[in-house]
Amino acid sequence: MKYNIWLVWMVAALAAGCSCADRAQEQRRSCPSPEKELSVYWEGHDFQTLDGFSDIDAAEDKFDGFISLLGQVPHETAVAEMTEFMDSASQNVVAYMVWSGWFEPFLHALQSPYRNDELFVAWLDKVLADNIIDDGYMMEHLASLRQMMTVNREGMQPQDLLLKNEEGVEFMLSDLKGESTLLLFVDADCPSCLQALSDNVGEHKDRRLVAVLVNGSQYHMSNIRAQLPEEVLAPWTFAYCPQGRLETEGLYDTSLLPFRMLVTPEWIIEKSYF
What we know:
This protein has helices at about 1-30, 35-40, 55-70, 75-90, 95-105, 115-130, 135-150, 190-205, 220-225, 230-235, 245-250; strands at about 160-165, 170, 180-185, 210-215, 235-240, 260-265, 270. It is α/β, with parallel strands linked by helices. It has 2 domains: about 35-150, no CATH class; about 160-270, Glutaredoxin, CATH 3.40.30.10. Strands 2-1-5-4-3-6-7 form a 7-stranded mixed β-sheet, with helices on one face. The relative contact order is 0.09.
């Protein structure tokens, strides 16, 4: 009797295994690869009109799916598909500008699950070369972003800055060389930036902690001290750029505040913009 029960269980298990294998094989046949899905993703979309934006949420969801697929294929394929999409979008200038407005938050924002520096650079090169966007401010912003994507990358040295600390002592950022350092770029008037000061004390307690204030001053450093407890403040060195180069010369992408950089004792960026 026990033998019969064991035999029935084995037959059932084998049948289930075969069934699962059959289902998996069927799913592989029925679910196209990301490459194949991308190749037909925009079929039937009318790029010549604005009809695709009649439901803006649906349009953004469609774009979300497109960006998700781009992240699942080799870089060369992603660039080719993105380029073909932008060429199609160029049939309507207004639509082209709407689509373009979505690439930065999807591919560049620190919080985006699709953040992809390499693909974002390829998109910037494409849109700047197209020169279709009839908005001088936006084109200037995109050109500035493209320039910033060439500096402060992992493996590079951080762009040097003259800084001034709370005691009024001026020093170059590169003077900090010699010790593993966390650079945290913040805005004193930004609640999430103040939270970042607290969050990073425990996470990076074995590193030197330096907070660089964007649009900062002695007043802003005092204002931070008035809002945070001493146990949070004590590990930090606070500084700002008295010359204003940080804000005006595009040395760092301050649109991403707050952001961090890990720098080795040799003063090489270990991790950038996170």
